[in-house]
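Colleagues,

Please find the record for the two-part complex below.
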Amino acid sequence: MSVIFIVLPLAILIVGAAVGAFVWSARNGQMDDLETPAVRMLRDEGR
Amino acid sequence: MVTDTLRLTGATTGIGETVLCAHCGLPVPEGLVDDAAERQFCCTGCHTAFTILHEHGLDSYYGFAERREAPVRASGRSYEEFDHPAFAQLYVTRTVEGLSRTELYLEGVHCASCVWLVERMPLLQNGVVRAELDVRRSLAVVEWDAETTPLSAIARALDLLGYPPHPYRGVARADMRRREDRAMLVRIGIAGAIAINVMLLALALYSGELNGMESRFTTFFRWMSFAVTVPAFIWPGRVFFTGAWASLRTKSLHMDLPIAIALAAGFVRGAINTVTGEGPIYFDGLALLIFALLVGRFLQQRGQRMAADAAELLHAIAPSTARIVDAGSASEQVRDIPTAALLPGMVLDVRAGETFAADGVVVRGASSVNAALLTGESRPTSVSEGTTVYAGTLNVAAPLRVRVVEAGETSRIAKLLRQVEESARRRAPIVQMANRLAGIFTAVVLVVAVATFAIKTQLNAGAALDDAIALLIVTCPCALALATPLAITVAVGRAAGNGMLIKGGDALELLATPGTLVLDKTGTITEGRTALASWSGPEWVKPLVLALEEGSSHPLADGFRRAWPGLAVPVVEQSRHVVGGGLEGVIDGRVVRIGSPRFVAEGTTRIAPAMTAALDTMDRTLTPVHIAVDGEFVALAGMGDRVRDDALAALQALRARGWRTVMLSGDATDVVAAVGRALDFDAADAIGAASPEDKLAFVEHCKQRGTVVMVGDGVNDAAAIAAAHVGIGVHGGAEACLATADIYLTRPGLTALVELTEGARRTMRVIRRNIGFSIAYNLIGAGMAVIGMLTPLIAAVLMPASSITVVLGSWYGHTFARRLRGGATTTELTA
């Protein structure tokens, strides 16, 4: 059971990374408009 | 559905197949079908758009399943004013790369193909570096090189594709808002992640306690909980502490204060218990509390945002440009300038079908003006030299020269809009009432907590702090704070499924108790468009009438055209339009006059016998149109705006529930009185000839005697709608109405009003039940805590339990009919 002393902080670190990614994406404006990108990707082959 | 019917009436080839426009997919009118051409177009606008796309190799546009189904109506404007320095100062910002950047509101944007096409602007127009479209708000961000390309060229290109652009004000404000939104979202995300993880740790702790976990693991889990919770306090939770600090500094009690104290007390106690290794740590409850409170705050903020957004749009679609006539030069040069640069004394050139850009006096020409925007009067009024015209109203018939008297912020429409904004702001104190009540509750809890702590310390030092904290946590106004917003959120969601969009929760609260219901006539009680309601006269007159009205753009003419579709029409030999009177023409050698009674009477010597009786029996709610042939008055048409079928039943249902109903209209007094009699209004409660200012004054007056609900559908009602306790915009209402109204009904008719008041009443019952429960719960909990029956742990378990009860109560409470959003409703919402 002692493995929990390593695994738990590791899990928290992974959560920290996920939160970091979320903060980055939100600050990058990826959450500003949730409608258009869905429509844009339908036909995004350049031309 | 509309397109289907249109297809049936479109041009057909020999085999009976409809020819469809290659660009917009609508039927091509018979006269425009060119048998030699490979592709057919319904108008030159579509042809131009197709050619542009084809030349640039953008044919894959036509591969979209969902495409714009409207003919391209390029305005053909020069957009010169977009290059004016004053315009640049107002709307254009510079990017770091040295490009110019602006936001444009595009008309006609609605689907995937629009996004694709607008974002191909860099390919279509040299100098455009980036174009991005937000399809929900119809806003395009354009970045371009101002050195090589003027903005007007980009605007013209967009216009040609069928997206006439309008400048969008408040770019700076939008940027600020975007930053706020992002910060809020980040806070919620972090708080949520932390809450979930602390709860997982708590789960291990609680189950470990039951099964006898080794103490080294228990200590480890407690320290981990502490470590994970700390960031929740210093990042997302900070807003409550700054709020509490502000409330202390201004010496007012705010909801943030008890929350901050409970959070701080719980955190300190939890931290101490973590260090000593004894007693509960509370971190799970605290982290969840921060998350829940932030989500609630976010939802509330978004509702307020929506109102402000819609108001912005109104500014954006007001005319941005005006044509002025250069005085002094003999050749009378006419040029475009931005409306913002207009000054009193300038002379404007306003063509038929255009909107006046400023208040002014007519100096040349005679025409008729549709002032429905300001007055609500559905019939155009005639203007001639010396008449005052107002910004925002529509020049219907003929070109005019207008000398500007008031422009910009001092114009009548701008003042009206400012009143709208002020009315919207005045509402804030009512919202703060709820906060004040929670504040009083808070003060009492704080005093009791301190007293408990002080008294218990005198008697038994050990349990004193525990009891005080248990008291603070168990009485946290969490359930109380949830009670109202949650029930309202659920009700608002259900109402939306029923075609009623409710913007503010306070509206529901106010609608629950009967008061005064003020209704606009045109478009609300009536259908809002002119139609032929009665006809007395021989059949042979009809083709003559239609022939003469054919070329007229007058709304009455439109009524005739809709009434008799497909009637064969003789050729008009000559015709003349008398402004404010009617039409006169010669058909088959017979002189035909159509128009107002006075105009027709001028050239009439005889009256057909049937007409005397017809005049007597005619419905007074209608506008009479007389028709004379060769000097004999032969036919009488009644043009009117039909009263909605469900109006009487709905009004009676509302009256039965205790509402006082008042009809307030800009229309002529006699018309309003007649409609009022038909719908059982008290004679004093059917008021006609009311200007927007009158309506505002009336609403303000009624407000002294209780709740006032204003139902209307135009800019002319906007001030009154905003000033009323509850403003309701009805189906087909102007964009401005949406900007100021609390509620927008997407269903036509007045039945929705009955459902709305019923739903509001039931919602309030659910809210009262919720509040009653949470107060009872808090009182019992507080009592138990004070006498020492509660440990902080049990308090921490009870706190969410009360919230969950409130959640369930709100969800299962019967408010509005549960209905899935039908296809029709959702399309109307996005339209």
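Chain A has a mean pLDDT of 83.

Comments are welcome before we finalize the supplementary table.
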